[in-house]
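Hello forum,

I keep getting stuck at the same step: I have a sequence, I want structure tokens, and every attempt I make locally crashes halfway through. Rather than fight my setup again tonight, could one of you with a working pipeline run this one for me? It's a single chain of 205 residues.
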Amino acid sequence: MFVDGSSIPSWIKNNAKWWAEGQITETDYISALQYLVNQGILIIPITEVTAASTISDNEIAHSFVVHFSDGLITKPITISTFSKFQITSSTADEERGSFPVYKFSDNPEFYLESLPSVDKKDFYIGVDRWMTKSSVISPFDVNIDVISGDGRIIQTWKFSKCELTGYGTYLQDVINLYQFSNNNEKAEIRERATFTCQGIKLTTP
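Reply #2:
Ran it on my machine without issues. Output:
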């Protein structure tokens, strides 16, 4: 995309600000962008579609399956309803911006996020165990499988000697933010759990 900054009308710049603040609709903002294109101020180059774009939906990542060893609770548990997994170590590195990557020299940290659900009862027992430290607890391992659309494991993140460091339930009510429930017009209750570990490996089948 090429833009001649010197010729952008001030009202277009204001529209971008107002749209970001929710003061004008998306339709109005798109109309402003179309004006820039029609006037030759904004030029959008056409790129060729390569063979890589033909990968099928079944071959790309669709979900996570999380395996906890005993230590979170007194037995291993597996949960397939976490919607988001993200590495959080070193996300503040200025050279990488806010991209969720793991810097190899760090102690691995990550979080899991989802909609609270009844299938996670054992997980919530583990949260309480670690929150109150009401019994003797020890670090546990967490394996996170990245699953393709046809159910195959693409990769597995293996975290060793982990501790549950935080947990919270909250209302996600920000407009236009992607919802786990696929209903962008409705607020939803979410949960997030944070973990710190001593080891990490990435494996493939």
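The helical segments are 10-20, 26-38, 121-132. If your local run keeps crashing, start a new thread with the error log.
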